[in-house]
Amino acid sequence: MKISGTPYRTIWLADDADGGIGAVEIIDQTKLPHAFLTVRLETMADAATAIRDMWVRGAPLIGATAAYGMALAMRADPSDGNLTAAYNTLMATRPTAVNLRWALDDVLAVLTNLPAERRVEAAYRRAAEICDDDVEICSSIGDHGLPLIRGAWEKRGKPERVNVLTHCNAGWLATVDWGTALAPIYKAHDAGIPVHVWVDETRPRNQGASLTAWELNQHGVPHTVIVDNVGGHLMQHGMVDLCITGTDRTTRTGDVANKIGTYLKALAAHDNGVPFYVALPGPTIDWTVRDGVAEIPIEERDAAEVTVLTGRTASGDIADITITPDGSPAANYAFDVTPARLVSGLVTERGVCAASEQGLAGLYPEFAPKSAGG
Ligand code: MRU
């Protein structure tokens, strides 16, 4: 996607003055929307910090960054010991998005049986392929999701705008390019459908207000930022045609873990007959998990993300303010699980399917447990 007219991905190989295989560059998403800064990752530890501290975030981008983290580790020391250490360090960065494990397992499988002297080149090549594949996958998610938006618009007789509600940031900033939930929105906008997006602010880190709003703005997609509690009201009053969110881990039965608050939106959508779609790439499916509520690990983050807000003051400075009384504890659960029964459909790179074991098995027969494929 473009930033002020210049095409960007969220992660790329940095220019290297001496022409060798070098550092990796990312956008520091903690600085958006007030500043656009890029950061060079020189070491595996840098990549681990970037994921843990959410300079990069979003399930697919976490996976891509971890893959490059393995490459940076091999650049420093391609021994078996360092391969294992890098895998373990990167795996421990964030618990919920399964793309992390998927990417690390993938790169590890490529490198394990290679002699040390071939590992650097192989790791960089595989990390680049993972990134390229993600772009293709997300573009296909957009192609498969576009008819859902077009259908909602046509069903209402092509009004002046068709309203899509989204939660958190599942746009191009959360992937390598295009996004998952936002890919159909970009494709619909580009196809001339008058799509308008209700952007949940997504407390506590405000990925909606800061990142989704920023990237929709960059692409010229009409949108309105709302506080997280508004969605139910909008749905009761016919002001949402469909919801589309992303997911950090989808069970083989179609339960979806996503940013905290997604479940409440799905409940409101269900109560009001509003279609609730979840967009995801294949690597976000965890075929080992059946019951999302019981089995998906939910990240708990620093309480300071709840008690302290960061923003731009009238004078242009970036400042932190505390919004809770001294001494009040806060809890910060970062994700929740929406059961499959509340999900109208899963939008994948292979098409749209029911949020069920049969639905996913039909699209991914090669991964599905034998009993589910039919
Ligand atoms: O904590 P974050 O910002 O990494 O959470 C991101 C989300 O919950 C996204 O919706 C999800 O990763 C899907 S991204 C395409």
Describe the fold and architecture.
It is built from 13 helices and 18 strands. By secondary structure, it is an alpha/beta fold. It has two domains: 2-133, Four Helix Bundle (Hemerythrin (Met), subunit A) (Up-down Bundle), CATH 1.20.120.420; 143-373, Rossmann fold. Strand 17 and strand 18 form a beta hairpin. Bound molecules: 5-S-methyl-1-O-phosphono-5-thio-D-ribulose. The site of 5-S-methyl-1-O-phosphono-5-thio-D-ribulose has 18 residues, from helix 2 and strand 11.
Strand adjacency order, main sheet: 8-7-6-9-12-17-18
Task: List the ions, cofactors and other small molecules found in this model.
Answer: 5-S-methyl-1-O-phosphono-5-thio-D-ribulose
In the predicted model, the low-confidence regions spanning at least 5 consecutive residues are none
What's the domain count?
Answer: 2
Structural class computed from helices and strand pairing: alpha/beta
Mean pLDDT: 96
Distance between the termini: 40 Å
| Cα radius of gyration in angstroms | 20 Å
Number of helices: 13
Q: At the first level of CATH, what is the class of the largest domain? A: Alpha Beta
**Strand residue percentage:** 15-25%
User: For the report, how would you describe the main beta sheet?
Assistant: 7 strands, mixed
CATH homologous superfamily grouping of the largest domain: Translation initiation factor eif-2b, domain 2
Strand tally, please? 18
Rough outline: globular
Which architecture of the largest domain would the CATH scheme give at its second level? Answer: 3-Layer(aba) Sandwich
Share of helix, binned: 40-55%
What do we call the CATH topology of the largest domain?
Rossmann fold
